[in-house]
Amino acid sequence: MGVRSFLKSTLKSIAGQPTAGKPAAGKPTVKVPTPPVAPPPPAAAMAIEQGLKTLPKEPDADGYVAVSPSRLIPEGGRNTFKVGDEPVAVFRVEGKVHVIGDECLHENGPLGEGNLKGHVVSCAYHNWRYDVRDGSCLTNPGTRVACFKVKEKDGFIWVGAKVHDSSRERGGEHDDGLKVRNIHER
Ligand code: FES
Question: What pTM did the predictor assign?
């Protein structure tokens, strides 16, 4: 190191500045953390949000209510929506959309969250099974959940009037054999 460099370096350290290549003694370098970047919402959630924004708000001329963009219920898909106060379960099987009441006849489990195999949905709670084409209950024959008219138009699924009501009977045995009181038993 030459004399000039030596003097420069000495003056800097007296003034508290770091010498070239070394941090000043007692003055650790402070790293400013970069703010965390929020991860983008999952693509599926974004698609639903976008789709629901475009949902027609008013019933159509025939009184059908739009519940979902068609593309959000693909083949084998299902979901739960509300038409007025009525929870409905929507399914697509072999390209066709079916709409039945969402509340399982056992203990009101949401059928739109059940497991779909062909035309049969199994309630996610205790596996009671229903035919999505007409709401008939296969676990407790002779009973059924409501069934609704449905159509697809302008890229949306539209739910119409009820074809028939749900049975009033509720409760029964679990598939695991556990007995449950039938609340409408006389
Ligand atoms: S609530 Fe559906 S099977 Fe129990």
Answer: 0.70
| Of 101, 61, 109, 107, the residue nearest 84 (C-alpha) | 101
Tens of pLDDT, residue by residue over 140-178, are 999 999 999 999 999 999 999 999 999 988 887 766 554
Query: Per residue in 26-45, is it b (16+ CB within 10 Å) or e — as a string?
Result: eeeeeeeeeeeeeeeeeeee
Report residue 51's pLDDT band, with 50, 70 and 90 as the boundaries: low
What residues does each domain of the chain span? Answer: 55-164
Residue 103, pLDDT score: 96
What are 92-116's pLDDT values in tens digits?
999 999 999 999 999 999 999 999 9
Ligand 1 atom with the smallest distance to the CA of 104 is: 2
Q: How far apart are CA 155 and CA 148, in angstroms?
A: 19
CATH class of 55-164: mainly beta
Strand partners, 137: 130
Kindly give the number of the ligand 1 atom that is closest to the alpha carbon of 175: 3
> What letter does residue 1 receive in the DSSP assignment?
-
User: How many Å lie between the centroid of ligand 1 and the Cα of residue 138?
Assistant: 13
Q: What is the largest CA-CA distance in the chain?
A: 108
Q: Which atom of ligand 1 is nearest to the CA of 114?
A: 2
Q: Would you give the distance in Å from CA 10 to the centre of its chain?
A: 67
What letter represents residue 139's amino acid?
Answer: T
